[in-house]
From TrEMBL:
<comment type="similarity">
    <text>Belongs to the cytidylate kinase family. Type 1 subfamily.</text>
</comment>
<protein>
    <recommendedName>
        <fullName>Cytidylate kinase</fullName>
        <ecNumber>2.7.4.25</ecNumber>
    </recommendedName>
</protein>
<keyword id="KW-0808">Transferase</keyword>
<dbReference type="InterPro" id="IPR011994">
    <property type="entry name" value="Cytidylate_kinase_dom"/>
</dbReference>
<feature type="domain" description="Cytidylate kinase">
    <location>
        <begin position="7"/>
        <end position="214"/>
    </location>
</feature>
<keyword id="KW-0547">Nucleotide-binding</keyword>
<keyword id="KW-0067">ATP-binding</keyword>
<dbReference type="GO" id="GO:0016301">
    <property type="term" value="F:kinase activity"/>
</dbReference>
<keyword id="KW-0963">Cytoplasm</keyword>
<dbReference type="Pfam" id="PF02224">
    <property type="entry name" value="Cytidylate_kin"/>
</dbReference>
<keyword id="KW-0418">Kinase</keyword>
<dbReference type="InterPro" id="IPR003136">
    <property type="entry name" value="Cytidylate_kin"/>
</dbReference>
<feature type="binding site">
    <location>
        <begin position="11"/>
        <end position="19"/>
    </location>
    <ligand>
        <name>ATP</name>
    </ligand>
</feature>
<dbReference type="InterPro" id="IPR027417">
    <property type="entry name" value="P-loop_NTPase"/>
</dbReference>
């Protein structure tokens, strides 16, 4: 078993898992994996290459050939900062659609596991605790109701200069949730040993503290750390 610790944070879109993962990783001095960004990058690559989303082999090929880089300045694809591009709703919707395809998930699986490096990794996504890092000592399922998530996403989009309507975002999220939870391959669900946190009425600091408190207990039990 890999001795490098991993905290997985899974949950539906806009549940805040990316923000929480970043803060938890910073607090611990660990690496972070935004697995959703990889699927969004694959979706963006497909859109730019005009790949038919139904052509699973071509979609997987785009993912396999991704020229991507993550650093403090943003997310880069083919030398271009695409941090904002991958957050567009059209890209997110396509990412949700193609994420159900087994060839794509297989193409990205090994890439995700490479992020597990000392001293530790905080990985957020939809199947981090169930498929990618099933042996992780601490698994979090971060949930929130659709209305709360839509409010957060609306705020994010407007801050980035995009227009957004709450009603449309709620409908979109409910449809995306249904799609993610019902897909046959790696559906969105909490791992059997995951701790579920409902962040509907929790702020970032409160949620981060909840995760860090759980890690403190888990690390003491599993690794003798404090």
């Amino acid at each position: 078993m890999n001795s490098i610790p991993v905290i997985t944070i899974d949950g539906p879109t806009a549940s805040g898992k990316g923000t929480i993962a970043q803060h938890v990783a910073e607090a611990l001095g660990w690496h972070v994996l935004d697995s959703g960004a990889l699927y969004r990058l694959a979706a963006l690559a497909c859109l730019r290459a005009q790949v038919d989303p139904a052509d699973q082999q071509q979609v997987a090929k785009q993912a396999s050939n991704l020229d991507v880089r993550f650093d403090s300045a943003g997310i880069w694809m083919q030398g271009q900062n695409v941090s904002n591009d991958i957050r567009q709703e059209a890209v997110g919707n396509l990412a949700s659609r193609i994420a159900a395809q087994p060839p794509l998930r297989e193409a990205l699986l090994a890439r995700q596991r490479v992020f597990r490096q000392a001293p530790g990794l905080v990985a957020d996504g939809r199947d981090m605790g169930t498929i990618v890092f099933p042996e992780a000592p601490l698994k979090i399922f971060l949930d929130a109701d659709a209305a709360s998530r839509a409010q957060r996403r609306c705020k994010q989009l407007k801050e980035k200069g995009f227009s957004a309507k709450i009603d449309e975002l709620i409908a979109d999220m409910e449809a995306r949730d249904a799609r993610d939870r019902s897909r046959s391959h790696a559906p969105l669900r909490a791992a059997s040993d995951a701790h579920t946190i409902d962040s509907s009425h929790m702020g970032v600091e409160e949620t981060v503290k909840a995760v860090l408190d759980l890690w403190s207990k888990t690390s003491a039990r599993h690794f003798g750390l404090s």
